[in-house]
Design goal:
By secondary structure, the chain is α+β, with helices and mostly antiparallel strands. It is elongated. The strands form two sheets. The protein has a three-stranded antiparallel sheet with strand order 1-4-5, with no helix packed on it. Strands 3-2-6 form a three-stranded antiparallel sheet, covered by helices on one side. The chain has a single domain, classed as TolA/TonB C-terminal domain, CATH 3.30.2420.
Length: 103
């Protein structure tokens, strides 16, 4: 039996997104010409709950990717996936959508 949960629940993208995007310096809609920035990030959660091999699958641009990568690499509170009672590494893909401020 495969069990996959995390301190940021791996099915609760909203809480992960809120944590990762809190405090980011975001461009305005006028600067980007967009209302929403969308990106997808791939990474591995190790058996000790740390994150490694963070990659940008779909870029948001405007310097946001670099900040998200820093925050993902610094996050350490992921719960470990278990299979038959044994901890396992898991690759994860995280979509993030950010609504930009008007000004």
């Amino acid at each position: 039996m495969l069990t996959a949960t995390a301190a940021f629940s791996q099915v609760d993208n909203r809480s992960i997104t809120d944590t990762l995007t809190k405090g980011l310096k975001l461009p305005t809609r006028k600067e980007t010409g967009k209302k929403i920035l969308k990106g997808v990030y791939r990474f591995t959660v190790e058996t000790d709950g740390t994150v490694r091999d963070v990659q940008v699958k779909d870029s948001m641009g405007f310097g946001v990717d670099e900040e998200v990568i820093k925050k993902l690499k610094a996050s350490k509170n992921w719960k470990v996936v278990t299979f038959d009672g044994e901890p396992r590494r898991i690759d994860y893909s995280l979509p993030i959508n950010i609504t930009l401020p008007k000004k």
